[in-house]
Amino acid sequence: MIWHYLTTALRVLRRHRLFSLVSIAGLALGLACCLVVIVFVEEESRFDAFHRDVDSLYRVVRQMPDIHGPSTRNP
């Protein structure tokens, strides 16, 4: 049964080459973007997680006016 599905898929891929190329490229790009987002979110969620009292940690951020334009953010 699976052999029938594979031959049908290969026939369609050969018959509609441009459409298949665009579809496969879009799928690959979508999967790559999804993996990048997952890795980024995972990295950001583990920020300072190695501390013993991670629930009581705070991050201080201050705004400083800049002479040449808008204020800069200094963590």
What would you call the quaternary organization? Answer: single chain
Task: Calculate the terminal CA-CA distance, rounded to whole Å.
Answer: 60 Å
What structural category do the secondary elements indicate?
Answer: alpha+beta
Order of helices and strands: HHEE
- The overall pLDDT average reads 85
Could you list the spans in which at least 5 consecutive residues all have pLDDT below 50? none
The shape, in one word, is elongated
> Strand percentage, roughly?
5-15%
What does this structure look like?
With 75 residues, the protein is α+β, with helices and mostly antiparallel strands. Helices cover 57% and strands 15% of the residues. It contains two helices and two strands; from the N terminus they run H-H-E-E. Strands 1-2 form a two-stranded antiparallel ribbon. Strand 1 (62-66) and strand 2 (69-74) form a beta hairpin. The longest helix has 29 residues, at 17-45. The model has no long low-confidence stretch (mean pLDDT 85).
Outline of this structure?
The protein is α+β, with helices and mostly antiparallel strands and 75 residues long. It has 2 helices and 2 strands, in the order ααββ. It is 57% helix and 15% strand.
List the topology elements.
Blueprint: H1 2-15, H2 17-45, E1 62-66, E2 69-74
Antiparallel strand pairs: 1-2
Task: Tag the structure with descriptive keywords.
single chain, 75 residues, alpha+beta, two-stranded antiparallel ribbon, 2 helices, 57% helix, 15% strand, elongated
